[in-house]
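Escalation from tier 1.

The customer reports that the assembly of two entities below gives different structure tokens on two consecutive runs. Tier 1 could not reproduce it. I'm attaching the input and our single run for tier 2 to review.
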Amino acid sequence: MDQQAQVQQGGAVEGSQHEGAAGGEFERQPVPQSRLLGFKSFIGMYAGEHCAGTELMIGPLFVAAGVSAYDLVMGLIVGNALAVLSWVFLCAPIATRARLTLYYQLEKICGKYLVKLYDVANGVMFCFLAGAMITVSATALGVWFKFPMPGLTDLYPNSVGWVVAVLAVGALISVVAAYGYETVSKFANIAAPWMVLVFLVFGFVGLRQFITSTGAEIHSAGDLWTLAKTSIWKGGDPLPGQVKFTFWHVTFFAWFCNMAMHVGMSDLSVFRFAKKSWYGVASASGMYVGHFMAWISASILYAYQLHLNAADTDVLPGPLAFRAAGLAGLICVIIAGWTTANPTIYRAGLAFQAIIPKASRFKVTLLTGLVATIAAMFPMLAMKLLGFVALYGMLLMPMGAVVVVDFWLMRKLGLRSNFAELSGRPFNWAAGLAWFLTLGFCGAVMILYGFDKMFFVSLPGWFVAAVVYILASMVYQKAVRPAGLAA
Amino acid sequence: MRMIAMVVSWLSLAALTAPSVMYLAGAERMDLDTVKRIMLWASVVWFVTAPMYMWNGKKEGAG
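Tier 1 run:
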């Protein structure tokens, strides 16, 4: 999930307030041919932005969820492939045809008021996501200052030291974000290649430690796989408070953890700059670097911690990284959390500011940072990150279905696309109903069949949103006829 | 100067990873403390040299 935040430069930052690192360019007009970017730009961007602080939580949480080696590796291969295909076949084709930001496209379809509601939802989720990133960075301070840090099952702050550390990290990040995130963004670009390699080192070191401590003889890939199955990802019951992860959980998690970006269409804002829609395959660099290599590396470190002491279940990226890579590892944790939390807070601030345009962006961003910091004090957010990420995608997914239906199907069904723009209505109730009823459907499924279904329910949910949008549009477009087309 | 910074920075990334590869391969003279020490120095070199050509470089992001 993740650090989409960092470099979605054309994404929600600009979308939320229609400004941003895209240079505030082409927010309300299609990107012209002269400003299109080559394939390499997208590879670099995706590879960097999906190697974030949260990867250091997600990898270990897979182990805590009792995942087996086959389920993890195959699940990640398949799930990440599905995510890439979602970018290639759902998001990029619309992006390269319309060449508009998601937000402008949504405004044309849904109307200004509904987009504002979308901004609130997005802003709140960004706040919590930034909170998880602050949590990750704060665990690095614990290595230096030795205060008690939260455990896997802790829901509330467990020490004054922890609260102070989170407050210090959160305040610093919020102030920097309030002044604008250009400098941090530049620094993040510089840190990205280094960070990816430090993640790789985590994996190498963890693997060696396993080989040494188990006395395993590794002469072939088969030997390595045996070590993986029997010592690293052994499967079995999850740790207390965690959902058991199978192949399907891993697959759907890997597929949907960036759901807001591909199926949810946030990355329309990115791929509108692509010359060809197949550039969507560039997302594979992010998926297989960040959501394969980095998750696996981080999970090896945690599995080794459990191997040494099964009772030591704390998921603390700071100490994990320090044990594997010393000071460089610790710096990686801080930078990974900081460079991703910073733009996330900035973007959340912009999303909220869109609701109250007259409010000072500086103050709104500071306030947003404060909320994210308070959220970060509660370890339940980071320790339940797998569930939160699934929820994040689910919340925004219905609007992606609305965009797809509106772009490809409406005219074929004899309906009008971009209906809010056409009718001058600020709130397209058909799109609103599609969003609310789909969330109601997803909620009902989780209540009836268990909350672990949150990892899967977005798939049927997408079809529910599409069908509701079509049916509601049939009724709504008859009732509300555009002025120029009135009979 | 820019070219030198580029070469040195890329070498620092090689120095960042090579010790861990040797450690993984079981090289006798490469213990974990050495890996950590070399990683730290390689990181310092990266963060000194990379900004020399990346700070004002062309933005890579899609937008």
